[in-house]
UniProtKB/TrEMBL annotation, chains A, B:
This is Octaprenyl diphosphate synthase. Its cofactor is Mg(2+). Signal peptide: none annotated. It comes from Marinibacterium profundimaris. Gene3D superfamilies: Farnesyl Diphosphate Synthase.
Amino acid sequence: MDQVTLSKPHDRLADALSDEMRAVDRLIRDRMVSEHAPRIPEITKHLVEAGGKRLRPMLTLAAAKLCGHQGDADVKLAATVEFIHTATLLHDDVVDESAQRRGRPTANLLWDNKSSVLVGDYLFARSFQLMTETGSMRVMEILSNASATISEGEVLQLTAAQDLKTTEEVYLQVVRGKTAALFAAACEVGGVISGAPEEQVDALRAYGDALGIAFQIADDLLDYVGDASSTGKNVGDDFRERKLTLPVIRAVALASEQERAFWQRTIEKGQQDEGDLDTAMELMRAHDTLEDTRLTAEAWARTAREALEVLPEHPLREMLSDLADYVVSRLS
Amino acid sequence: MDQVTLSKPHDRLADALSDEMRAVDRLIRDRMVSEHAPRIPEITKHLVEAGGKRLRPMLTLAAAKLCGHQGDADVKLAATVEFIHTATLLHDDVVDESAQRRGRPTANLLWDNKSSVLVGDYLFARSFQLMTETGSMRVMEILSNASATISEGEVLQLTAAQDLKTTEEVYLQVVRGKTAALFAAACEVGGVISGAPEEQVDALRAYGDALGIAFQIADDLLDYVGDASSTGKNVGDDFRERKLTLPVIRAVALASEQERAFWQRTIEKGQQDEGDLDTAMELMRAHDTLEDTRLTAEAWARTAREALEVLPEHPLREMLSDLADYVVSRLS
């Protein structure tokens, strides 16, 4: 397929890494199987086959290939990263009592909370086994640190929810936990197992971190400015769920006394009436926080692109760079 | 303190390892702290300070000391093992909707299911970070395999619950997941980080496995024959919760057609009337399965003791041997 029909950088990456991604999918299927607990693949199949964009394993594969990786550790780590991601989705489903995930009913509605918790634990354990097979202590450190950041971010999100005192700093920590920590680790381990120079490993990590932050800020912004038919979410879901994301945090910081009372009623107390979403949108527009948030996402995308400069010239490097643009392109 | 006042092998172990256990407790407190999510120690403190018997970290410390360990990896791994154990307790609480754990309200009643899942994940991640600090790939493999066995066992228990087709083999797999896998790994890593000969490492693993199985079978049997005031559980809780433990599995295997109908009604369908627990006890007595189960627990305790024979002579070896006796002594 040529690059005209494959215009999205994500699709071009998938095309450039198709052999490796097939090997990753095979490995994921093999390692989901439990000799002793046949229900496990029943649940994981549902999630893994729903597919998602497989962005995280592609980051690992792309980083490794870019750094001249030889062997099969890249495939193992790509599967590891997808297992960790899938495990966090399973645990999120329990946590959020969310009814939809990737447009399908969540595992915890089809089965139950018990299975979601335990099968998530199983996938964590499996990911852990897979990464030990690379024999790299440094990989273990990177992924264990990422796991700690992920769960800290999730707990932080829980405690920050509905709290108008939430700062941009706390928001950024939550975003790192939710998204950027695993993006950064996925890229970094790709460099590490390829024996890339430290400067390149650092650059890969910085790229993944900034890409993840840009991606999550864009996602949060799309909740207010997105097109429901393409995002699959309704406008204002986060408002209704009283989540403090960047455009709201900034609007609260700039609020007059009267506006503050509005945010206290709707977010802290959760007393929401018809028309409140419209008012919230007006306040964010009045303080320009939707536009400011877009600029922040774009700045992170730029940081991601710039990080790539120390890496060797390679078509994959261009695709990664384009990917950073792409995650924020939906905003303008 | 002399051995007369410290008659329980568990207390003698605690006394012999008191310096190391203090270091473990300090490390646990230090590593529970989350810079970003202050709610975490709030929840874990509750669990870790409730204390429990700290049996698993003592196994690691005893195994290491017995094999002449030098350094602080033993303390790190003992804390690792306790973190893994605490994380599984937090996730079990969600899973079982249990209202009591170690005589205190469970974390998920004091806080909520969300916190239990996420803080459990945090402790898993922390345990993982701690073990990487030992720098031993072999330790990583042992503990990742144990983690997989634990979660497989938990899922298996879920699917086997209320299923009269549950075999002794499935029961044993569940018991390995619930208890023996972590006991075995706790002992094994103590040997590994001490550079003990393979024969001794294998023996430590075999000891932990058999000790864990004896412990869990005894625990399940005490649910029927124990004294509520010392076990803290009501007689017949497992029956009411329709759990298939060894004495019931054996009674079902030996059941007449009429008896089978009784088990189907009470366990599979969950239709339990007054007097049904008495009938269940009668059936187990009639087929001698309570006594047979006791003999099985004792046989595993013997296996545990025998495994220790290849280890160096040492007072700690005697305490571990006595511990195997002790876990089944409550049964006679």
